[in-house]
Write a structure and sequence with these properties.
Layout lengths: L2 H11 L3 E3 L2 E3 L3 E3 L14 H12 L4 E8 L11 E2 L5 H13 L3 E7 L7 H4 L4 E2 L3 E2 L6 E4 L2 H20 L4 E6 L4 H6 L14 H19 L4 E7 L10 H12 L6 E5 L8 H4 L5 H7 L4 H9 L10 H5 L9 E5 L5 H9 L4 E4 L1 H5 L3 H7 L38
Parallel strand pairs: 3-4, 3-14, 4-5, 4-6, 6-10, 7-9, 10-11, 11-12, 12-13, 13-14
Antiparallel strand pairs: 1-2, 8-9
Bound molecules: flavin mononucleotide.
The site of flavin mononucleotide has 26 residues, from strand 4 and helix 14.
């Protein structure tokens, strides 16, 4: 591309883009990166400062993550509880993003088999009795009554997000958190209407989606973060996840799918690809990592746009919702390829942790390479306060509730 064309392409891509009932100033979303800046489960100044940098840096919408729908749904320390008691801080968060010219999404989830008793105080739950191979703890089977309660909690959390001024909710149906664990034949061995066929294993996700939609209507966009495959034998693979996407898309309630891969239960590096700092990770977690390291988390060389090939499989299947491409997006050539191939948005995680102003930098100089080297040292910071080890230490901002 010559210089004139590339600048034209930059101007075309980084322009306002509709997502259901909302319009993003640019079609770039800061992907969820569990921030760990909420020691009391509430919004803090550190959390606001952290996200403001992405909005000021040219991202259209940032994702507040991870927001648990209940105290039992926490995955790691310092996460947000999306509950009415926290609404004042949540309003301050969205107001700050809006004042800076960007939008805010809230990732809502229940950690299910990933939760630990040390963090939540309860024995974690899963679709069926299940031994988590990383933490070595047993999860008990969730009851039908709990399925109903959790569906309601998702709807309540989405309504709190809408009342707090969020522009979107992202339902976390990926990474073998509770809802995607239902989709996995490896974890879900149920014999009732929530186990067995793909329709049955998608039922919980569909019920949550419809309940959320019924509750929030068009007050905000609904994004689903969906696992395409998780790299685990006998678990989630494209032949089934494309069918799951079809079932959810046909409801007409999804505004966009953010397509992801991997899980936080096993073969964790499949989610990230690239170097793994086993010692760093083992030091932050109880369990087997210290001894079995790479056998548990797997080894997958880093590749730019590593989710693209799988994500292409969803293009002919998903007819109503838009598609958000994620994974290994590090510079303008990756972003422009995503749009050339027909994706509607891109989501970026690690490259933004390294370089929050990456979009503004690209607009100034689209030939510039991204700074993130995918060393993945940010990964094990999920058990404290996440940060890129090469960049500003946001941990210095106040972690008191605002
Ligand atoms: C430190 C860190 C924390 C993350 N936390 C979350 C999370 O809370 N929820 C989630 O869905 N994904 C989480 N992710 C995964 C990212 O959203 C994204 O799917 C992944 O990093 C791949 O995108 P990237 O190549 O642009 O980094 C996290 C990633 C990192 C690096």
């Amino acid at each position: 591309m010559n210089t004139e064309n590339i600048h034209q392409s930059v101007a075309q891509i980084f322009s306002p883009t509709k997502l259901g009932p909302i319009t993003l100033p640019t079609p770039v979303i800061k992907a969820a990166t569990s921030e760990g800046r909420s020691p009391e489960g509430k919004v803090t100044q550190a959390l606001i400062d952290f996200h403001l940098d992405f909005i000021k840096g040219g991202v259209g919408m940032t994702t507040l993550a991870y927001c648990a729908i209940s105290k039992v749904g926490f995955a790691t320390p310092g996460e947000i509880l999306m509950a009415r008691e926290n609404i004042e801080g949540l309003k301050k968060f969205t107001q700050a993003m809006h004042d800076a010219g960007g939008l805010a999404s809230a990732q809502l989830g229940h950690a299910g088999p990933l939760a630990t008793k040390q963090i939540t105080g309860y024995q974690p739950i899963a679709p069926s009795k299940f031994m988590n191979p990383t933490s070595f703890q047993t999860r008990r089977e969730i009851t039908l009554k709990e399925i109903e309660e959790i569906t309601e909690q998702f709807a309540e959390a989405a309504e709190v997000a809408a009342d707090s001024g969020f522009d979107a909710v992202e339902l976390h149906f990926g990474h073998l958190y509770l809802v995607s664990a239902f989709m996995s034949p490896w974890i879900n061995k149920r014999k009732d209407q929530y186990g067995g066929s793909i329709e049955n294993r998608t039922r919980f996700a569909k019920e949550i989606l419809l309940k959320v939609k019924e509750r929030v209507k068009d007050r905000l966009a609904i994004i689903i973060k969906l696992s395409m495959d998780d790299g685990i034998k006998g678990s989630i693979w494209l032949d089934e996840s494309t069918q799951t996407a079809k079932i959810l898309d046909e409801t007409g309630a999804v505004d966009a799918f953010e397509l992801t891969m991997g899980s936080s239960v096993a073969k964790q590096m499949y989610l990230f690809h690239g170097e793994a700092d086993i010692d760093g990770m083992a030091a932050t977690q109880k369990g087997n990592l210290k001894w079995f390291g790479k056998k548990i988390i797997g080894e997958y060389p880093y590749k730019d746009l590593y989710m693209l090939e799988a994500a292409r499989q969803f293009q002919p299947i998903v007819k109503n919702a838009k598609l958000i491409l994620l994974g290994g997006i590090n510079d303008f050539s990756h972003i422009s390829q995503a749009f050339r191939e027909g994706f509607h948005f891109v989501a970026i995680g690690r490259a933004l942790l390294r370089e929050p102003e990456i979009i503004n930098n690209i607009i100034k100089n689209p030939y510039k390479s991204g700074l993130c080297i995918h060393c993945n040292k940010c990964m094990f910071s999920v058990y404290s306060t996440i940060n890129c080890v090469f960049t500003k230490d946001y941990a210095t901002s106040s972690q008191k509730a605002v």
